[in-house]
Amino acid sequence: MRISPAQARILLILAALLALVAIYLGIQEQYTWFGPVLVGLFLTLALAVRAHEATRGLSYTLIIFAAVTISLSYPQLFTSWGGYALKSLIVPLLQLIMFGMGTAMSLRDFAGVAKMPKGVLVGVVCQFTIMPFVGFGLVSAFGFPPEIAAGIILVGASPSGLASNVMSYLAKANLALSVTLTAVATLLAPLMTPFLMQTLAAQYVPIDFWGMMWSIVKIVILPIAAGLLFNHFFHGKFPLVDRAMPLVSMGGIAFIITIITAAGRDSLLDVGLLLLLACLIHNLAGYGLGYGACRLLRMPERDCRTIALEVGMQNGGLASGIALEMGKVATVGLAPAVFGPLMNITGSSLAMWWRGKAAAEDEQA
User: Fold this and answer.
1) Per-residue b/e over 277-302, b at no fewer than 16 CB within 10 Å?
2) pLDDT digit string, tens, across residues 343-360
3) Are 78 and 35 in contact, with CB atoms under 8 Å apart?
4) How far apart are CA 281 and CA 276, in angstroms?
């Protein structure tokens, strides 16, 4: 939907009014209408930011915030329909999303390992060291309940996802390296994620190494392999599928986050602000330490940006699916549900800042 600057100004005024109403309702503890007003605020902002290219990427995240608010306000709508537990849809939706990821890739994406060996090696090492150990440090410092703590470590132990590729493109980073790193980290996930969870999180929850490995294979590897085959044999023959898959992926991720939020509503209300803070620190530490490590190794600026985004942005969907397979989606699954929307805000902000900085450097050159 196209929004003109004039329409955006009207929407921003409406959003300001809704924000004032939400604050008033919160102070008065009138929670019956607090949720719907907050949903209206997020949806209004989601429309308003579409007026400018620099902020358009935030629209999807604001829509997720609206969906989460509905889920917190009316959790019964997102737990079961007609006796069918909606959480049963999480794994099939993730498999569909991963299939879509596979259709957007080709075997050429893996050839980047030979072309950029240093970047791939540094990126993979940073991916599977910085975030897991930062997550472990955070849960030790914050003293979260065991299953919430395991969820934070699980986020850190997961590979990067497609969101990092989008942000690398926006940041004018090394997109080829980003795609290659995502592909390699995803292939390594069936081994590295269970290993890291068993090493760092076994004191919080029981970890079934082989069971987790199989979960990742069936959620990620097999659907991506099917997508790669589809792309190889049918590329360009089904344009409707090519256009639909990104929308299906975005809708699927939003629905998954909504289901997890509803299932873990009580736990989220207990630790919500602390969990949000921990996820923010985790995310920003990934960017900062990933970028800093690359600068110390004297890597090109574009590669530093790429690896920073790859490290800081994790595959929250996969972490959610693993939490469901563990039978703990309402607790272990909360950190991925919080981390996902948050990283999109910080990632898009960082990408646009880097994009502007790159443009300024080009002008000086």
Assistant:
1) ebbbbbbbbbbebbbebbeeeebebb
2) 877 887 888 788 777 544
3) no
4) 9
